TrEMBL record:
GO cellular component assignments: plasma membrane
Transmembrane regions listed in the UniProt entry: 21-37, 49-72, 181-200
Keywords: Ion channel, Ion transport, Membrane, Transmembrane, Transmembrane helix, Transport
One GO-annotated biological process of the protein: ATP export
Location(s) in or outside the cell: Membrane
Name recorded for this polypeptide: Calcium homeostasis modulator 1
Keyword presence, Transmembrane helix: yes
Length: 349
């Protein structure tokens, strides 16, 4: 249990690295799923395009949504976007930064899936085999066929076991032609993604870094504040439960068994560990000892976030300290100098 708790704390402390690792694992999983996926083209003109494009688009959408689901910041972003204004304003730049960072991580697995699919070419072959212009690979006998018959014949090109038009069209040449076009689209897609990522990385330092640092800082603050508030609520709930249970058992034991005078422990330095523990639990309650008060605290935290201002107490303390130092210096200057007297001590030995 302790090892599991240490692992959870480590993951919470290194959430950004953990999310990057999750995105990398999802990217590898998408490539592995495609390699183990049994691609079965229907080989019908009315369904080839829908099946091929569906394999190319639907799994990336699923991976994209899964990237949002696995990211803990999606709940933080939603709560910050939907919460009432209260005493704390909402910064749209911070929300945009959180959304963009989550989107960048969620796009890794879909990009890998699309790139692997285009490089392999099976879905592209299934989608465009019936509608591609393959007249260069047809012999003279195709002229006697109607347009619908030619489409049906071309739609069966991805299916080797049902294709029976070898005397009309060269199947291997048509497959190589369509897969070559699919790989060209795949490399073009990778080049576009790489150029966009490079431009984002290169152009970002050209803008004001102060605004970027501000949005990054407050996005981390929102996430950290939420975690600390949850931890404080858990600690308060634990202390509240301990005190309630202890008081319950004390009341029950007082009703069942008559209270006897407990012997006083003699000895110097002996401390009551239960008393210290009870005292610490009482201190953790922070004065909130009723159910209605706790519900009010939780409700106010959501509906009316407190302002981000922690300098008032420090200013007051600094002011008092300043006054104390001034008064001390005034007393030191106004105090009359004491006369120095020499004292001699003699020993009888």
């Amino acid at each position: 249990m302790d090892k599991f708790r240490i692992m959870v704390q480590f993951l919470q402390a290194n959430q950004e690295s953990f999310m990057n690792g999750i995105c990398g694992i999802m990217a590898l999983a998408s490539a592995q799923m495609y390699s183990s996926f049994e691609f079965t083209c229907p080989c019908l003109p009315a369904y080839n395009y829908a099946y091929g494009i569906g394999i190319l688009i639907v799994p990336p959408i699923w991976f994209f949504l899964l990237g949002y689901v696995l990211n803990n910041n999606i709940s933080v972003l939603t709560e910050e976007w939907k919460r009432p204004m209260g005493k704390r304003r909402k910064d749209p730049a911070v929300l945009r930064y959180m959304f963009s960072s989550m989107t960048q991580r969620a796009l890794i697995a879909p990009v890998v899936w699309i790139a692997v699919t285009l490089m392999d070419g099976k879905s592209f072959l299934c989608a465009f085999s019936a509608t591609s212009d393959l007249s260069e690979f047809l012999n003279e006998t195709y002229k006697s066929l109607s347009k619908n018959d030619v489409q049906k014949l071309q739609a069966m090109i991805p299916c080797e076991d049902v294709f029976d038009g070898h005397h009309i069209i060269s199947r291997d040449a048509a497959i190589r032609y369509i897969r070559c076009f699919s790989q060209a689209c795949g490399w073009t897609f990778l080049m576009i993604i790489t150029i966009v990522a490079f431009l984002v990385r290169a152009i970002r330092p050209c803008f004001t870094q102060a605004a970027f640092l501000k949005t990054k800082y407050w996005s981390h603050y929102i996430d950290t504040e939420r975690k600390l508030f949850d931890e404080m609520c858990k600690e308060h709930a634990k202390s509240f439960a301990k005190v309630c249970i202890q008081q319950y058992f004390e009341s029950i034991s007082g009703e069942i068994v008559p209270q006897l005078p407990t012997p006083i422990k003699k000895g110097k330095g002996n401390k009551d560990e239960d008393g210290e523990k009870q005292k610490s639990d009482e201190e953790k309650l922070l004065g909130i000892r009723k159910e209605d008060d706790m519900n009010k605290v939780l409700w106010n935290w959501h509906t009316c976030k407190p302002p981000l201002l922690i300098t008032k107490r420090a200013e007051d303390m600094n002011g008092h300290a300043r006054l104390d130092t001034h008064s001390f210096s005034d007393e030191r200057h106004t105090q009359k100098p004491m006369k120095k007297t020499a004292v001699a001590y003699y020993s009888k030995v």
